[in-house]
Amino acid sequence: MSAQTLKAAEELKPKAVQRCILPHCGGVYAISERIYVCPRCGGPLEIDVHLPPANEAPGLRKLWAVRAGSRDARDRSGVWRFRELLPFEDSAPVVTLFEGNTPLYDAPRCAEYAGLIGLRLKHQGCNPTGSFKDTGMTAALTQAVVLGAETVICASTGNTAASLSAYAARAGLQAAILVPYGQISAAKLAQSMDYGATIFELDGNFDDCMRLIQDLGDEPSIYVANSINPFRVEGQKTVAFELMQQCDWGGPDHVVVPGGNMGNSTALGKGFEELLRLGLIDRLPKLSVIQAEGSAPLARLFATLGPKQRPPAQSSPQPSSPEPLSSESWLDDSRLPGTMAPVEHPRTLATAIKIGAPISWRKALRVVLRSHGRIISVSEQEIADAKSMIGRDGIGCEPASATTVAGIRRLVASGYIGPTDTVIAVLTGHVLKDPDYVSNYHRGTLALDTGEGNPRPIHGSFRNAPQRVEATKQSILGVLGRRK
Ligand code: F0G
User: Fold this and answer.
1) pLDDT, average across residues 258-271
2) Which residue from 205, 212, 261, 431 has its CB within 8 A of the most atoms of ligand 1, so it is best to mutate?
């Protein structure tokens, strides 16, 4: 074959395919197919990107670093600057709000609170619509345009909806969002109103909205942008790339994320695994997921897993050379549980993760097990106090994000995380996403509806309520003196 023919063949090779993750199926489909689950067996799909050869990896590091200083729109996006690892052609009509490029903060007060020497917080709430969803939505909306969709739709606890609405507005597509009536933060809903989405408030919870979405996805003009859509996950996986770049491609020992519908954990795990295959990192961070106690179906399932399902402790999960990670290599996917019992009536004040039947539970469980991570739950009190501690570091986040620091504290106490381990918590939403929660915590009026008629109060261990004082210099100095 001549060099020219070879080049032409190379150009014809698709950049990626969609693959069913179920071991007994493994169906493969073109990325141009508008599917969300395997057409053959109904299993979850993931995108298999043909990664560049490992000898090109060092060049990628340099390229990605240089792009940070470029004025090109794709280079300025913290997602598209990693486009070599995304399933899009170079000519793709990128829909971007310059997402990503979020800070990695030191959080000394949180570290002390959790029992660690150091703790860093990757703040995905610093994205354009205030949550981590934007890194996935830029990819999903770009694919919607590629496929010629007219309407993009999602079920949401608020953040996916706000993000979808904004990106659809940028792309000039109709946005439709399904939210559980009365169960999401007013601030998030206000965003979707402003971005011009058609908003459907449904009687029922998030899981009911999600069931309906799966029916609506059959309509040819509609494109589903929940994380069941594997393109969303592709955008969100770039957070793993950016995080490792911020760590100069070395460490951390642990990465901890909140768990709701389980798209975020799936995406981060996939991102880390791709870096390992490329040889850009030499070990996977242990990826742990934290759920809220009243909405913790996967933590419950995880607690029941026996040694058969967990990778053997002795054999290292990290291939010594950058070999492809496959189910056969060190975790047999067929050993994964086939079902997960949902939580019928999920309850938590962290409404973003009030989810009883997470759609991507299986994909998330896979990546957690492969990395030797944990899935646990924390109480409402722990979430509230951890949230206020994050605030004391001058950072702030929405309640769901604070499950991470609460979970890390538990994992340190149990000995799973060592006090000198390097740990990064991913904060998923901005503090202003749920101002009512913050205000109620600090004023001492936060309470969980238990569904039994008597709300359970959450005590603000680190309360900081406003003080009403006379408008005099003396009264102000008096209060300041008392608080020193
Ligand atoms: N944190 C925040 C702030 C969220 O909004 C969500 C999910 C999660 C964590 C959980 O992430 O679902 O990928 O496991 N919010 C979705 C929504 C469900 O509709 O906004 P996940």
Assistant:
1) 98
2) 261
pLDDT in tens, 63-92: 999 998 899 999 999 999 999 999 999 999
Tell me the C-alpha distance between 296 and 301, whole Å.
9
Q: Separation of 227 CA from ligand 1 center, angstroms?
A: 10
pLDDT band at 327 (very low <50, low <70, confident <90, very high): very low
| Residues having CB within 6 Å of any atom of ligand 1 | 131, 156-160, 227, 258-265, 352-353, 398, 400-401, 428-429
Residue-wise pLDDT tens digits, 166-186? 999 999 999 999 999 999 999
| Ligand 1 atom with least separation from CA of 257 | 9
Burial of 220: CB neighbours in 10 Å, binned 0-12, 13-18, 19+: exposed
What is the spatial distance between Cα 69 and Cα 72, in angstroms, rounded to a whole number? Answer: 9
The set of residues, in sequence order, having a beta carbon less than 8 Å from that of 242 and lying 6+ positions away, is 78, 82, 100, 101, 102
Task: State in Å: Cα 53 to ligand 1 middle.
Answer: 34
> Under a CB-based contact definition with an 8 Å cutoff, are residues 72 and 96 in contact?
no
Which ligand 1 atom is nearest residue 398's CA?
3
With contact defined as beta carbons under 8 Å apart, do 383 and 406 qualify? yes
Beta carbons of 183 and 205 less than 8 angstroms apart: yes
pLDDT reported for residue 313: 43
Among 154, 157, 237, which residue has the most ligand 1 atoms within 8 Å of its CB, making it the best to mutate? 157
212-250, pLDDT tens digit by residue?
999 999 999 999 999 999 999 999 999 999 999 999 999
160/133 Cα distance (integer angstroms): 6
Centroid of ligand 1 to alpha carbon of 332 (angstroms): 28
Cα-to-centroid distance, 130 and ligand 1 (Å): 12
C-alpha of residue 1 to centroid of ligand 1, in Å: 50
The atom number, within ligand 1, closest to the CA of 260 reads 14
Gap from CA of 6 to ligand 1 centroid (Å):
44
pTM for the predicted model, two decimal places: 0.93
Query: Are the C-beta atoms of residues 268 and 240 closer than 8 Å to each other?
Result: yes
Computed over every residue of the chain, the mean pLDDT equals 92
CA 163 to ligand 1: nearest atom? 20
276-312 per-position pLDDT tens digit: 999 999 999 999 999 999 999 999 999 998 766 665 5
Torsions phi, psi for 354 (to 5 deg): -80, 80
| Structural contact between residues 127 and 427, judged by C-beta atoms closer than 8 angstroms | no
For residue 317, the model assigns a pLDDT of: 42
The Cα 367–Cα 372 span in angstroms is: 9
